[in-house]
Structure formats: C-alpha cells, structure tokens
Amino acid sequence: MQPKDSFVTNIADAQVYATIGQEYAVYLPTGGAPMLNLAAGSYSVQWYNPRTGQYSQGNDIVNHSGGPISLGNPPFSDDVAVAVIRI
After folding, report:
1. If you ran DSSP here, which 8-state letter would residue 9 be given?
2. Are the beta carbons of 38 and 69 closer than 8 angstroms?
3. Nearest to 14 by CA among 68, 86, 57
4. Per-position pLDDT tens, the chain of length 87
5. CA pair distance 34, 36, nearest whole angstrom
6. pTM higher than 0.90 for the full model?
7. Phi-psi region of 41 (alpha: psi -120 to 50; beta: other; left: phi over 0)
8. How many CB atoms lie within 10 A of CB 22?
9. Bridge partners (DSSP) listed for residue 44
C-alpha cells in the first residue's frame, strides 16, 4: 500500500493508503462522508471505530465504473476508519 491522500476529494484531513484496484484504507480523524476515487470494480466497505474496536459493515459498491464515489456516512461520529476491499 502507498499513501494516496488525494484519493479522498472532499475531506481535507483524510489519510489514505491504497493498493490501487485492490484495497484502500481511509482514516478520517474528524469523520465525514468521504468521496473516494476508486478503480473500476466491485468492493466491500467496512467501517471501523478505533476508539472502541467496533466494526460496522457499510454498503457494498457493485460494478463501479471507476472514479470518485461516496462511501456514505460512517456509523461513528468522528475518529473513524474505513476499509474498501475488492470483491
């Protein structure tokens, strides 16, 4: 994975690590609904609360044609991470 912070287009403090087209790890220290620039494909989305260790399944992304897509609102208010993995 390599740093790709510019892959989140709408949240300035987002931190992104990616293996493009395979997996993306996004950290949102102040929360928010990220727009993530993804390669074409289908992905599983899983939210993570680093304060509690709680996971929450997000909406899967199916047959995305590539480019920015909203990951939706996280189930946690702030200090949240999300894993996006090709399925």
Report:
1. S
2. yes
3. 68
4. 999 999 999 999 999 999 999 999 999 999 999 999 999 999 999 999 999 999 999 999 999 999 999 999 999 888 999 999 999
5. 6
6. yes
7. left
8. 13
9. 85
